[in-house]
Structures are given as structure tokens and as C-alpha cells.
Amino acid sequence: MDPRAVEVALPLPLQSTFTYRVPGGASLPGRGVRVLVPFGPRRVIGLVTGPATTVPETMKDVVEVLDEVPLAPPPLLDLAAWMSEHYLAAPGECYRLVLPPAGVRASRAVVRLRGGEPSDADPVLEALQAGPLPLSTLAKRMGRDPTARIARLRREGRVEVDQDLARPGFRQLRIAVLTPAAADVKPRGRAQAEVLGRLTAAAGRAAVPELLRDRPSLRGALDRLVEQGAIRIEEERALREPEMLAGPAKLRPEPTPDQESVLAPILAALGAGFAPFLLHGVTGSGKTEVYFRAIERTLEQGRSALLLVPEIALTPLLVRAAVGRLGRVVSVLHSELSAGERHDQWWRLREGEARVAIGARSAVFAPLTELGLVIVDEEHEGAYKQDESPRYHGRDVAVMRARLEGAVAVLGSATPSLESNHNAVSGKYHRLVLPRRIGSQGMARVDVVDRRQALKAGGDPILTPPLREALAERLARKEQALLLLNRRGYATSLLCRECGMQAMCPNCSVALTLHKGGRVALCHYCAYETSAPRACGSCKGEYLRLTGYGTEKVLEAVRVALPTARVERLDRDLAARRGAVARVLASFEAGETDILVGTQMIAKGHDFPRVTLVGVVDADVGLGLPDFRAAERTFQLLTQVAGRAGRADLPGEVILQSHLPDHYALQYACAQDYDAFYGREMEFRRTMAYPPAAALVNIVLRAKDSTEGAEAADVLATRLRAQARGNFRVLGPAFAPLARLRQEHRFQVLLKGRRKAMRDAVREALVDRYGDVRWPGVAVDVDPVTIM
Ligand code: ADP
Ligand code: ZN
Question: How far is the CA of 784 from the centre of ligand 2 (A)?
């Protein structure tokens, strides 16, 4: 084995790592260090994963070692390695997630002692007594990455780190400072007098761009004064900060007895190693305050905390409250951050300047050090699953990260996923319950309207009389209402009355949805868009009929029924416009909107005190889907949206319109009985061997040519069956529920059983990717949240 050979993960969708040789002279890069290597005709940046594990006959040389110490904290490297293994994902794609945003070069930080003698024998302080040292040298002397230790010493004010100038990528802000010598300098000319005057007015210190903003021509005079020594220029790191969301510093409410009782075990566990909790708190039970108190304690202990939310744009209140409460140590990893802002936030976290990271799924990789607490809010949300490679689940990765770093994990939800509740029931997680709402109001009253009756009576299919009356009542009382329909668009399909054909997407086996009042036809899967056809594509008939309806149509129906109401819509179509979601939510919060119509986006953790009515236009939308989570999702959505009604001191009411009023998902949602739903749903999962009763691996093969795809799927299924040995079952191959997508045919092989055996078998079955079978596109999804 060549001692100078290393294994390198490349940022490519390839299962394996590659072996390269480090030329003599260069020091051997450790795990996590980035290297520039040749790959085919290109040069790519890869990440060293460790010493070589194989001895290839020929080995190319590393072109350049880019870092002196690994940029990512070591536990995150372990996390990436675990993900690659667990999700059968390419190592390079996993490691890329824990690295700083692209475009950053090596760090050449220099650490120096600050002030007098160090008071205790700390290896870092000791090493620094002889003088300042580069971080990389410190790392070599200590034999490990000292970044976390240094971040702490820096917070304690015992060391200084000069790196801002050393690291390209940070924008430098030039500050003009009046020197004592200025008193002796006689300004020459009006321009110089002006500069000195401005600077004096600014108390002797101002950013140069600020100083010259309205008169750039003063620059010459400024330069002259710098030459004369009247002004000194200092450089400061200019953080590109996202617009700060901070509201007024919030009051810190005293925890209620319920909150006390769930906080006690969490606080006791902090600092004492890995401990996972499931916090099952009904909507409005005050989970947020529990999170904040736990974060505060974590910070007091000198550790950092991670708070994951399903989607930042939908939780502006939570984010604002967190920033108001915890202040500048918070870093909000918003998906709308510019590349520069993302870079700056990454380094703020890495260097310990920010100690709390808040963000969606990918924030689970925030480079916090000394992690003490990981919170996953609304842990049941499907948004935590990434639907492209690596297909990881943010919640599961969060728990694994907590485990690797000896931190406490808190998964919070009013409707826990079956997986998490199963873990709580089986004792793997500690279960904590907040059974009551804060304040005087109990849970909202829920009524079901049987739409079959209403339709027979010939009424409006969208707003049945009870719902319309309830809306009118709210309007009269100046209260607000939410109207949910989990389907966007104007109409769900366009049918030919003569031949019955439906307008289909040319690329997918999916009906086109009509938008913009029926003028535009859109595929929700591939985004194909066309103006609505005027004649049937099949028989050329001109009598076309719009059927089904989405949020756009609901908006229209409300405007017709209640012309004075101020109505707005919130769904993905709107979210495509930057800032639109925040605007609509803010106007609803401010009471400028009476009724908010929307998809599940309105069901998320908002806290609108004046909402006293929630109407669900069609509670059955998700139940018909061919997916094992259909009932779970419906139950969660209905329970969550019902939780938006009557949260302050006004009583709430919920009206569900349904064709299937007897379905158990609806029944238990109405009764707000989670445990009963869980029991009933677990029976189904056990009978059918679905998670959490069994693990799933879903494999989808995509091919332009349907015969090629079908043959490959057959080979794969046969190989997998040969290895099943009673550890798992192989279903298929079959057409995937979406049999055609983006002009590709899709075949599905579904495995149910023991996860490890399935993973090993899949790895083995796909191993000859370039051998006797030419695999078409293969997407392997371990622990899928959906098999559609
Ligand atoms: P959840 O996230 O569990 O749905 P929230 O955290 O949004 O619930 O809390 C619901 C409401 O109760 C919020 O308006 C919150 O400010 C308020 N609240 C939470 N804890 C307390 C408390 N200890 N005292 C008073 N009000 C509280
Ligand atoms: Zn399409």
C-alpha cells in the first residue's frame, strides 16, 4: 500500500471514491481536506476521505492541496460518511453538503494571545505563549482540529484570530478614522475641509462609502488627508447580512406547569450526552417557548443549538421571535440568501460567532461546533425529505447528528410521524406531552359537512351553505377565516364532451391543470405550459369542459358569494414570486385580509389570533392517492389546519366538507384523537409491511426507451429476489404510478423488509453499472416518504 495515496470523494453522482497520490514534498492531507485533482480532461475539487483503501495500478497525482486544516467540523465529516452509507448515495454528493458554499479558498487564520498571561494550562494558550501561530500549525501541534476550542477562547476574550484579511471572499469595509494628528493638519482647499468636517460630525469614524456617498469627488481629498496622517483607514469585515428579521425583543413568558414538566427532563439531559425526545404538543400548546428555553440553557452551557423548521418562508413569526429572543448569535439560513450572504453565515457559524442556526432541511449541516441541542419543529413534515440525490431525511439526519455529537435531540409536532411515535412507544425516544392549549380556549369545535347531501340539493360544490354562512358570520364580526384546498390552479382538467378525452401533458402521464382563470394549461410535474387548447386534441371537438377545481376557483367562488370580503390566495404559484409569501402573510397578520384561501401552505405553524374559522373545502383531496401515507398525511393536514382556529381568546370552529365523512383519518382528525389514529394506522402498516413496521427501499428506473427500461427493471428485480433470503420482499417491476415523466418511462421496484439487507442487496445488484447491463437512470430512495 502506497503511504502517500489517499481516497478522494468527487462531487459527482458516482458511488465510489477515487485514489490519488500526493506528490512528495507536500504534507499528507488529512480527512476533510480539499484537494484539486485531475479527472478525465478536467480538474475538479475533491475531498480527502482517508488513506487509500485500494491499490489501483495507475494513480494520478493530486495537483494541489487546498486546505491546511479541514474546513468542515469533523463530526460533520462523520455525518456525511454515514449518509452515504445509509442512503446509498454518492460520497461526493454527501460531503459537498457539509462544505462551505462554493468559491472559498483555504483559510490561513493566525491566532494570537490577547492581554496578559494565560491563567491555566490550556494546550492552545501554552502553544501561543511564544507568539502568534497559524491555525494550521496549532492543529499539527495538537494533533487535532482546534477550531472549536479557539472559538470558545475567542468568546472568552482570551485569544484573537486575524483571518478576516487572510480569507478572500469576505468583503472588506474601509473605515476612515480621524487621528490625533488631525489637530495639527491644516486642510488645504474646500474639499479637504469638507472631508474633515464630515468625519468630525460622525464622531471621528465613518465607513468610506458612507462618507463619500453623495460626493464621490471627495475621494481625492480623502486620499490626501490619509497621506498627511490626519486620517487612518481601518479595514473591517463587512458581513453581507440578510435583511434582519428581528422584531422587538419578546417578553419571556413564565412557563406554564405543563411546559415546566416537559422542560425539566430536556434541561436535565442537556450536556449529558445523546438523548432523543419526542415532544408531542397539540397545536397552540406552547412548544416554541420550550424550544427557546432549551436553547437558552444550551447557550449558557457554552454550546450551540440547531433549530430546523420545514420551510423558513412559512415560519416568519418563529424566526422573528427567535431573533428577538436570542439576538445576534442567531444565524438564519434562508433559502433566499445570496451566495455572498450564505458564505458569510457559514463562516459566522464555523468560527463560533453565531451559536444558533435556524433553517430548513439543509441547515442540518450548519457548521456549528460544540453542538448541544438539535430541535426539529413539525418533525412529521414531508418537506424534510430531499427528493433528489442524496435523498436524505432532514429529521433522521438531525437525530444522527445529535448522536454523533452527543447532543440532545427534540422532535416536536402536534401530529408526530408514525415513525417517531413508534420510536417513542417502543422506548427509543423519551416521550413528552403537552396535552392542552395555552390560554382559556380549548381545541376548536369540528363539524363535518357531507358534500354528497349538499350536492344532491344542487348547491355550490365549493361553498356549501353551512360554510358560506359561517364565513359571512366571521365577516360581520370582523374576525378572520382560513379556507384550505390542497390543490392549486383553476380547474383540475379539461375534458372533451364529445369523445371524453382529457388534455394531457405531452411529456408526462399526467392531466394538465388549468390556471389563470382557465386560460393557461400547466403540468404540475414538468412545468410544461401552454395556452388552454380550444379544441380536443383527439377528435377536434370544440366543446370542452373544465372539471375539478383548485385554489384559484375557490377564490373566485368566495368573491362571488361574499363580494365585500377581502380575500387573498397563498399557494406554490404565488410562492414563485420572491417575497410574495411574506407579503400575503403579513397582510393577513395585520388584519388587512379577511379570508385567506390556500393549499397546505396555510396549515403550517402560523399563529393568527383573530382566526376563528377554518374551512376545509375538500377534506378528501389526499385520500385517493396511491400512497401508503395517504391517510397519515390527511390526518396531519386536517389536524394542523384545525389547530389554526381559535388560538387566542376567541373560540374556534372548523368545518370539513367531505364525500367520505366516515373515513378514519377524518373521524380521528375531528375528534383530535392522535393516539386512536396511530393505533388504527399502525394496524394497516403492519398488515401491509409498510414503515414503521418494515423499512422500504424504492428504486425507480428511468429510460427514454420503454423496452430498455422494462428489461433493466426485470434484471434488477431478478437479482434482488435472488438475494432476498427471507430478509425482504421484492415487489415489481411495475410501471411507477407516474409511468411517464419528462419524456421518460418510469419503472419501479419496491423492497420491503430489513434495511441493511436491502441496502447490501441493492449495492450488489447495481454493482456492474458498466458491465453486462447498461443501467438506465436509477434513483434509489432509502426510507422514501412517498412511493408515487
Ligand atoms: P405551538 O407551537 O405548540 O403550536 P406556540 O408555541 O405557537 O404553540 O404557542 C401558542 C401561543 O401561546 C403563542 O401565542 C405563545 O406566545 C403563547 N404562549 C406560549 N407559552 C406561553 C406561556 N408560558 N405563557 C403565556 N403565553 C404563552
Ligand atoms: Zn409534464
Answer: 22
Neighbours of 772 (CB within 10 A): 6
Which residues are found with C-beta within 5 Å of the ion, ligand 2? 505, 507-508, 523, 525-526, 528
Q: 255 C-alpha to center of ligand 1: Å?
A: 9
Whose CA is closest to atom 16 on ligand 1? 286
pLDDT of residue 171: 55
Task: Check pLDDT > 60 for residue 236.
Answer: yes
CA distance 133 to 156: 19
3 state SS of 603: coil
Quick check: 248 pLDDT over 60? no
Strand bridging mode 513-515 / 520-522: antiparallel
Rounded Cα distance between 400 and 393, Å, is 11
Q: Hey, what's the cell of 755?
A: 434495511
Percent of the chain residues past pLDDT 90, beyond the cut:
37
Q: Residue 393 Cα, ligand 2 centroid: separation in angstroms?
A: 26
CA distances from 781 to 86, 386, 509, 774 (A): 10, 10, 21, 20
- Of the residues 607, 611, 640, 641, which should be mutated to test ligand 1's pocket, given the most ligand atoms within 8 Å of the CB? 607
Residue 759 amino acid letter? R
Q: How far apart are CA 309 and CA 331, in angstroms?
A: 13
pLDDT digits (tens, 9 = 90+) for 395-416: 999 999 999 999 999 999 999 9
Q: Cell for 449?
A: 359537512
| Residue-by-residue DSSP string for 113-161 | E-SS--SS--HHHHHHTTS-EEHHHHHHHHTS--HHHHHHHHHTTSEEE
Atom 24 of ligand 1: nearest residue by CA position = 253
Is residue 562 classed as helix, strand or coil in its secondary structure? coil
244-253, 593-602, 741-750: segment of lowest average pLDDT = 244-253
Q: Is residue 73's pLDDT more than 80?
A: yes
Q: Which residue has the cell 490619509?
A: 226
653 lines ligand 1 (CB under 6 A): no
- Residue 573 CB neighbours (<10 A): 18
Ligand 1, atom 14: nearest CA belongs to which residue? 607
Q: At what angle do helices 755-765 and 706-724 cross, to 10 degrees?
A: 130
The β-bridge relationship of strands 356-359 and 371-376 is unpaired
DSSP type of residue 569: E
State residue 491 phi and psi, 5-degree precision: -135, 150
Measured in Å, residue 740 CA sits from the centre of ligand 2 at 8
As a whole number, mean pLDDT of residues 136-150 equals 72
Q: Are 246 and 320 in contact (CB under 8 A)?
A: yes
Q: Is the pLDDT of residue 120 over 90?
A: no
- List the grid coordinates of 507: 411529456
Choice between 581 and 605, residue whose per-residue pLDDT is larger: 581
Summarize pLDDT for 523-567 with one digit per residue, the tens.
888 888 888 888 887 788 888 888 888 999 999 999 999 999 999
Given a cut of 70, is residue 622 above it in pLDDT?
A: yes
Distance 647 CA to ligand 1 centre (A): 9
Q: Which residue, 741, 742, 723, 720, is CA-closest to 731? A: 720
Residues for the chain: how many in total? 788
What mean pLDDT, rounded, does the chain reach? 85
Q: Quick: pLDDT tens for 52-70.
A: 887 778 889 998 887 777 8
* Ligand 1 near 607 CB (within 6 A): yes
Residue environment code for 271-296, b if the CB has 16+ CB neighbours within 10 A, otherwise e: beeebbbbbbbbbbbbbbbbbbbbbb
